[in-house]
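## retry 2 of 3
previous attempt timed out at serialization; input unchanged, resubmitting
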Amino acid sequence: MTEHAAQSPTMAPNAVIDIDILIVGAGPVGMALTAALAGSAQRVLLVDSRQRGWATDPRALALSQGSRQLLERLDAWQATAGTAIRQIHVSQRGGFGRTLISSEDYGLPALGYVMRYRDLAAGLSARIPPEQRIELCTVDKIETEEHVATVTVTHLGEKRTIKTKLIVHAEGTPDRGPDIRIRDYHQHAIVAEVRPATGHHNRAWERFAPDGPLALLPLDQDYSTVFTVPPGKAARLLALDDEAFLAALRDQFGQRLDFIATGPRIGFPLTLRYRTQLVQHRQVWIGNTAQTLHPVSGQGLNLGLRDAWELAESLFDRADAGDPSALKAYARGRQIDRRGSMAFTDGIVRLFSNNVAPLNLVRGVGLLALDLCPPLRNFVAKRMIWGARAWP
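## retry succeeded, writing output
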């Protein structure tokens, strides 16, 4: 990317703000895109309906080694905040077969990292000048013309008008509409941090059970746990006291690990939601608002960061950020990675979230084949690290 000097947008309350790119949503993906466009010819403004409040956000995120490389290029990687995943142990409850994937096999320091949301957000936020960001700003209306989009927003009770060549949607999940596809997995994820009886040695666990996958991701001295179960069972697990919850976790995981303490628990439903069309005239959707995936294998955020990076590359030196042919080319370029990641996670959930006896055998043979066949294991590992395009 070449360096340019783009002027900051005018922020006067009564002025019409004239910019090149409006990014709606200041989560990690929206901030990553803003940071990636720093030094470009584009005048960029990032708006968000919320105020920064992530200092106490307890959520943990799974970041691939590929995402670390992207964040390092943005000078936004928080080296001391991430806990390395050096091994991933994959198995199924009540069946044979297992696979062990190790970073040593690929000459990498780690397969991925687990980082709290607040640390990732702080690293990205530090790369964004204050004049490029408006918080507590809600989008009320969007009108697109041939060469410009007009966006009406409300900020601190006042209406403002923004003229922009391109609107990038990076906030929320796909709702409902003619171009939205939804698959309800009839599962809920229970998320908590649990303390193991012994050290985790930077090993992550993915344990498949008929209820759904159970993931244990190393985070500091604990595990960030994603416990997937049917909705009714999720309600019961959330109502348990700590000791009863740990007993349920032990029962689901098996005898390999023991757990001695747990933090607060939250639950949320799991669906696959995605847009069939990534672009419209002067608009593009990236990250979770383009596709929201099942958390199995931790692909969602990593896919979103790749969305942001590739979009930034396509926009960096472009005279018209909303050029329709450029947006269509971006959408075509994302299809392999996007469809591959959705198919990968959806296929895993559908194959493993059942107790059909013949499939138990098929799953066991598949896990054993992955463990015994390095090329096959490499194929899966590289796509977990760098996405369906297996970027270096």
